[in-house]
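note to self — DONT lose this again. spent like an hour looking for the file last time. sequence + predicted structure for the chain T wanted, 217 res
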Amino acid sequence: MPLENEKVFHVSIDDLPAGIHEIQKISIFQRYLPNSRVKELKVKKLRNNGIVYFGVIGDKGIEFKFEFQIETKEVDEWLDSFDHYKNGKVKLYKKFEPRVRLAGDKGFLTFKGPKKDGSGPEFEYEIPYMKAKDLFLVCRQHSVIKDRYPYEYKNFVFEIDVFKGLNDGLILVEVEYNLGQEDQVVLPPFMKNAIDVTDVGKYGNVNLSRKPFKMWR
């Protein structure tokens, strides 16, 4: 199962490592599609592979349709990760919101399942950049905008996210690891005062799009 295992920490701008701006950053813009906009999400197993069908209802009746060819193993991972109706139709849980992301010059659609203790299923597919921009118009109003700086330390990559826009002032650090590696993660010195917010819902990106950081005060 394509589990995303990660820890998330809140850090102060004063604690950021020296020379952070010398690291090659990735500019990220992302929004979330409300459950109500999802017309279809279906996974079909074929003889040698599988297909994910995804449909979105846009404004004025405009529809967006996507098909992603996947390996047979990934079909099984989808079926293990979500509840399904007949013919592979995915049953959407209450807080399900697909993510549309622009990262550099690329576009992505991401489907995440419920998380527990920092772990949960994640399926991500690249889509045309302009199609991702069109989908932005269908998403929730608030974008999550951030610059990401990948910081390597003791065999792990710590992704430093410096937020902008309505989340300006918020800095989160994410580190992903394989199942069973959690005890091997050593925090770099600049994170000595970091606060673990992995299971604090308001820090999740989907919640930051609903209630941004500047609205907390």
